[in-house]
Design brief:
The complex is a heterotetramer, with 2 copies of chain A and 2 copies of chain B. Chain A has 13 helices and 10 strands. Chain A is of the alpha+beta class. Chain B is an alpha+beta fold. In chain B, a hairpin with an 8-residue loop joins β6 and β7. In chain B, α5 packs antiparallel against α7 and α8 packs parallel to α10. The chains are: A alpha+beta, B alpha+beta. Chains C and D meet through β7, β9, α10, α11 and α12 of C and α9, α10, β9 and α12 of D.
Chain lengths: 373, 398, 373, 398
């Protein structure tokens, strides 16, 4: 794990300012309460701005118009913009989508898609699970060889950003095992059903009815199982980075509240029981930060223990953010229960990210298996 | 067995037969297996004709409040009979349609502190489930620190003139009456508070529902502007309302702690079996989640045993100092239950509305969010911990 | 669960006074520091007094000289005497030993042994496990039919009170399954090796070298597996009752300390963070009491859910006493770390009782299996 | 790679070769794989001839304190070289024989606050591991509230006359010198404290070992009766000792937190595999214990990553406010580790002495008991939480 470079520090500061100025929580609230929000769950305008700042191409090599900042750089941006709950498909597109092309795509695919992704014109989603819980080993979606390519059939449940994605990364079972397919959403036979989730972000069930794709739709540069694991790890680490931003902000908002709220003629930040709880939370968030940064760095440098560190990061992020959001509501008291306050937003979004791509329970088990016990 | 015990048993058996027959005759079959737990939480749903019929039948019989005195419309039953009634209702998959704050909090308080006229006037409608009461205690600046309340009631002889704001008025928008703590002396803190009954239809009362994170609005902000409250609605002495309010909060705590012991709901382990499946040994197929569910269900069982023990001790003259403990543990169980249910359901437990989720899944999300309130209202967990430390454990402070 | 009868209340008060006056913690400390203590781990004198008060016969029917107080009564005594860490074989003898005879013994055996047990002349221990962890399903000790009876061979590890017991209840495998045998310790081939445990109480490894026993040594009135489960449940509930007494006392001692210790010019009981921790512990101990009492009552009335409630009680007792003893040391600060203070005694004894006849982990699993998940 | 970087790498490689050769030459083969961690805890065990030889070799080289200035007997190495030294020691299964309070706490403090004469006199023997230092801070009535200390040092011109009692003097019975906080002004609290170095062989010093629950006596009560301490042993200004003491405690915290990151010990999961076994899927055959071990090992990993991050930030000029957090989490990890090890071992982890237990099992019991101290000494977990809340989070209080 390296110390941040000057460029990374600038990147983080830019992301932070943008989030505070252009995309505060009130922007998310407006989105949620709007018709557009109900349909899309993200702001096109914000995503355009993000692309203009180069974030959509943050992992993309310079030859394709990207800035090649690496996974740690992407994590910094995700953390900052998640502090204010910015609703965007950045992580899945700039993180997972680009990784899919870089790891599994051929030169032609990279040339075709990367510039469009960099420009913010293409959004990518990851369609793996077929039930309500994460089970990447239980894929039943079928990919069979047909004339001129592949035919996909099956269902993908709860695909985050699935309703707005231009391309779906679909994991499907072939005779050789599981493979990852690059499926433009406009392909005939792709049918999407919106799912209105508690976090008011985009989510869809994807039906695949004999979707016919060209041969190269299968991302073939890496064995399918391996590619799928790598992409899932990208999504998990990205989610963990967002969760880190959320936890940091939830903590900061709560601390501020405690310093202003009076009860029994005293600022409640002076109550020792609350001080010790906050001290404990502070420590937990520091541990979470270390785990998340280590996972991002390990992905960036393709370390042997990347999967281990990703599971550490995701599990830690889930538990810490879960605790932090519960304490956020509890320590705010009644006001935290009202829709008018932001605490509920953090709480709801936290649980969706917890459930996505393996919850703490899943990643604890995976961590132990990787450690051989 | 002695002869006297034998007679008692016969009387109980006869009573059981009577109850069973009465339920068979009056409980509408359409309501079998339903309950109004959710309505009590989210509130404001009008009753169906069958529900209305059942409420009236139970109300006339007084069995909604089985142990309250018959003189005021209660059932007048002894503890044993009340237990039989509860068992027979459960056997018939029936529920008690009489509830709410009138039953849980105000009724017992009035029985203890109110004048004979006040009891005659206010208790029978509670027994019949005709009047909805709401609570006017909390204020924006006086949440946990209730004694700092500022809503004024000016003594104008025949009436009080009430001005101020209350918040967290549960069901304020569909309530008929409000029991409130108001300040009648600004020069003292605890000793300047009185307990008033306020007709919510009085001129000058305005309610604004508060939308919660669960989407519902079971609470209101209530504004009182020059509201005239007849002097006859003062319960107890002027400026002596604090003791009455505290007593009422004890009833509230005892009732609120019930959350952990609700057996009507399916257990989390059953829900998890459906969503998670089992391994070849019949164990939940998520060892980590299973361990946490076991801990939860063990805690819930210990909690129920504790609630029974407290009831038993109280009946035998023991001191029930346990209400704060039960409140806190009950809240923890309710919240753990909701979190574990959500986790077991995965993404299906995180739906808000629309297609793709069944009714139970959507209810799980809403109950999870709603449940975050149980450790805040009725005296937060932190306040109860202060109470336990200071009053029970004698660790003075502040 | 019934309210205590007048007689039970008297019994509890008698036990409490005796413990405080005759068997305070200083008595245990003297025992530990004495040669007798090192060898026996209990005070003969104390046990004689207990028998004189009728406690050794607390489960024994009146026809055999007992007082027939039932399991709840035994639990009350165990709880009280454990408050001051009284070292005695009461639970295993008066609880498990008597239950073995009442449930599995024939009339002859009862007549022969019960009066001696009531008189405090016979001590019984339970020899089930063969390794360091509780696995009643992994019994390898063999019982084979031989001329005139049985021949037992095997090893039993960590038999609590095993070094001082006059009779060992040995679980051994026959061709029909596991059976429980009544084995006088003086029988040829029974060899005992002392184990010096952290709690300074008696414990031994038992070697059985072709121990020849009469036919009736097999307690035959109940099927072996069932009898073993019943006896284990007796031991578990008895241990839980002792743990309840220990937790109650550890709490009381700690609370007293907080009310006298000054730091930063203030009695530390006034620090809110400590208040909330004590409030939480108080609640946990109340829950523990309910679970323990329910288990004792269920055994007494032979309820269907007795095993379930026993597992609930033992698991709850383990967790709560574990937490309470850790907090006892922590809240006492440095003084709690010294051998001079009693906290260490509670801590050490707690862990031995936790490990005995199934720790919290074992009983949580058993609870879930009994609930079918 | 630039030419300069290339040169650096070559220098490091050369240094590594030098270190490797030196270790091969000086490290006694008989000590391979051993360490003196346990000795540091339980203390007072005399060194074997091989251990003594190794101590002298490292001491003369200054490599026991690799980054301290060579002028005072330290190694004078840069951070990179020190890391290489550590790696090579690990590769050779060797250990650093120079340690104790002199290295961990006093040395860095003297380097910062002491006069040139004091440095010249006291630091070299620490570097050579010749002098054992103990800490005289705590007193019976001043544990967490250190500033209430009462041990007096009367200013008699050339010397101070010290009277009073200290407690928790680690290794007082086998120490040569003691660094102590003493009261030199009774009219002020924090501003009346001075930092003194006291020769433990001075007349009037008496130590009484305190037996701990783990059976050992690594601490003492120390009594000072008219002990004369030459004025030259005052570090810093008179009455300005509090700041020096606080700084020293920071060094202590940073060092104490290391417990969580000790990689020399086998992991709990490995121990548990031996005692508990695995199921057909290779998972520990106790799902409940396994889940808790996983949580523990994850926490330990996050802790190590955090310690690394803090070091890195500190090197880059970041503020190391993290010592309190590391101390608390480190203590938690040490204690969890011991409890889990004990639980995995079952009854075998609860032996005290004698037959039936192997050395590791008996050590597990003792370490478990000893480990209860780590959340108490060096500023208890509660004190660290106060520090975090007030100094880092700005939640003032009291």
């Amino acid at each position: 794990m390296a110390v941040l470079t000057e460029e990374q520090v600038m990147l983080r500061e830019m992301a932070s300012s943008w989030a505070v100025e252009q995309s505060p929580v009130t922007a998310f609230r407006r989105l949620r309460d709007s018709t557009e929000g109900l349909q899309r769950g993200f702001s096109k305008d914000h995503y355009r701005q993000m692309a203009e700042m180069g974030w959509a191409g943050i992992l993309v090599p310079e030859e394709y118009g990207g800035s090649s900042f690496g996974y740690l750089g992407l994590g910094l941006v995700l953390e900052q913009v998640a502090q204010t709950l910015t609703a965007s498909p950045l992580m899945l597109t700039a993180g997972v989508g680009v990784s899919a092309l870089m790891l599994g795509g051929n030169t032609h695919q990279r040339e075709q898609w990367l510039p469009a992704i960099v420009a913010g014109e293409v959004i990518v989603a990851l369609a793996v699970d077929e039930g309500s819980r994460h089970h990447p080993e239980r894929i039943e979606c079928q990919a069979s060889v047909c004339e001129g390519g592949w035919s996909l059939s099956g269902r993908k449940a709860f695909v985050l950003e699935g309703g707005i994605a231009d391309v779906l990364l679909v994991a499907a079972r072939t005779e050789q095992g599981v493979e990852v397919f690059w499926v433009p959403a406009v392909t005939e036979g792709v049918i999407r059903h919106d799912r209105h989730m508690a976090d008011s972000r985009n989510c869809a069930e994807i039906e695949l009815r004999q979707v016919v794709l060209p041969e190269e739709a299968r991302l073939a540069e890496l064995p399918g199982e391996q590619l799928l694991q790598r992409l899932l790890d990208c999504a998990r680490a990205g989610a963990a980075a967002e969760m880190l931003g959320m936890a940091t902000q939830a903590f900061a908002v709560t601390l501020d509240y405690l310093k202003t709220r009076e009860q029994f003629d005293e600022i409640i930040a002076r109550f020792q029981a609350l001080q010790h709880r906050m001290a404990n939370l502070y420590g937990e968030i520091e541990l979470m930060r270390s785990a998340v940064e280590a996972a991002l760095s390990a992905i960036e440098s393709d370390d042997d223990d990347a999967s281990l560190l990703v599971s550490l990061a995701k599990a830690t992020a889930c538990d810490t953010l879960n605790l932090m959001t519960r304490e956020m509501v509890q320590l705010h008291g009644g006001i935290g229960m009202t829709d008018e306050h932001d605490a509920g937003f953090y709480l709801k979004r936290a649980r969706v990210l917890e459930a996505a791509w393996g919850n703490a329970s899943f990643h604890r088990d995976r961590f132990a298996r990787l450690c051989d016990y | 067995m002695t002869a006297a015990m034998n007679d008692k048993q016969i009387a109980i058996d006869e009573f059981r037969a009577e109850v069973r027959g009465w339920i068979a005759q009056h409980f509408p079959a359409s309501l079998k297996g339903k309950n109004n737990a959710f309505a009590a939480i989210e509130g404001g749903v009008p009753l169906s004709p069958d529900q209305e019929e059942w409420r009236q039948a139970m109300g006339e019989k007084g069995w909604g409040v089985p142990t309250w005195p018959a003189a005021y419309g209660g059932g007048g039953l002894c503890g044993k009979q009340a237990a039989v009634l509860q068992e027979e209702l459960a056997n018939a998959e029936a529920y008690n349609p009489i509830g709410g704050m009138g039953v849980m909090m105000l009724g017992p308080t009035l029985l203890e502190f109110a004048s004979e006229e006040q009891k005659q006037r206010h208790i029978p409608p509670i027994c019949r489930g005709e009047i909805r009461w709401c609570q006017g205690f909390s204020e924006p600046g006086a949440g946990s620190d209730l004694a700092s309340l500022r809503a004024r009631a000016e003594d104008c002889g025949d009436y009080f003139l009430v001005n101020g704001q209350k918040t967290w008025t549960s069901g304020g928008q569909w309530s008929d009456w409000c029991f409130a703590l108001v300040r009648t002396d600004t020069s003292r803190k605890h000793e300047g508070i009185s307990f008033l009954l306020i007709d919510m239809r009085s001129p000058g009362v305005e309610v604004r529902p508060i939308q919660l994170i669960s989407g519902a609005s079971p609470f209101c902000e209530t504004f009182f502007t020059d509201v005239k409250v007849p002097r006859e609605n003062l319960v107890g002495e002027l400026n002596q309302g604090w003791a009455i309010g505290k007593r009422l909060l004890q009833h509230e705590r005892t009732n609120l702690s019930g959350g952990g012991g609700n057996r009507v709901m399916p257990s989390v382990s059953q829900i998890a079996k459906f969503y998670v499946g089992v391994d070849e040994q019949g164990r939940l197929d998520d060892p980590d989640l299973r361990q946490r569910i076991i801990r939860h269900e063990m805690l819930a069982r210990s909690f129920r045993l504790t609630a029974q023990r407290v009831m038993r001790d109280a009946k035998n003259g023991g001191v029930a100092t346990a209400s704060s403990i039960l409140k806190n543990v009950g809240a923890r169980i309710t919240q753990d239950r909701a979190e574990l249910t959500l986790e077991a359901m995965g993404m299906s437990g995180l739906g808000w509305e629309g297609d793709g989720f069944n009714e139970k899944e959507l209810a799980a999300t809403r109950l999870w969010l709603w449940g975050k309130a149980v450790s805040i209202y009725g005296g937060s967990t932190e306040i109860q911990n202060n109470v336990i430390a200071k009053r029970i454990l004698g660790m003075e402070g502040e």
